[in-house]
Fold this sequence. Notes:
The chain is an alpha+beta fold. 16% of the residues lie in helices and 29% in strands. The protein has two domains: 45 residues, no CATH class; 117 residues, CPE0013-like (CPE0013-like fold, Roll), CATH 3.10.530.10.
Amino acid sequence: MSAKTITCIGCPMGCRLTVALENGKVTSVDGAGCGRGAAYARQECVCPTRQVTTLARVRGRREPLSVKTAQPIPKALVFACVEEIHRARVAPPVKIGDVVVKNVCGTGVDVVATMDVAAVSGDGGAADLHRLPGAPVAFETDGGRAGVISWPAVRRGREGFGKTPGQVLT
Ligand code: SF4
């Protein structure tokens, strides 16, 4: 039998949950202010997932496209997911909700656009692909924050404020 303390992220209350585990299974959850806490604790302790938001390259445009996973994916695949998205070249036009990467990392979850991008005229922009930094950009999760701070994040001065590029957030 082992115990683990986690913070529920189901609402701003942020209840501290004490989770008892036996043979990898959750046997009890204490400290939850509502029923969602127990469900979250079971998910987090047995198979943690995160929703990923990041940026993708767009053919013919300097500005990247903001995207997110349509559903949370296993936490262990977050970095592989970000890398797969960064390898993609999204062809405009794009509408919010369009699938830009299908079945990312074999999870069965698609990556969708969270903004519109108009069509591009000219040569399709093959010579004008925006170069994103090699490191993954900062991304949000449903568990608060996790990821790697990037230059864009630092420049925006929001999620990267006071952080160093390359710094790992957990
Ligand atoms: S257990 Fe319920 S009340 Fe507490 S943080 Fe989670 S969702 Fe909110």
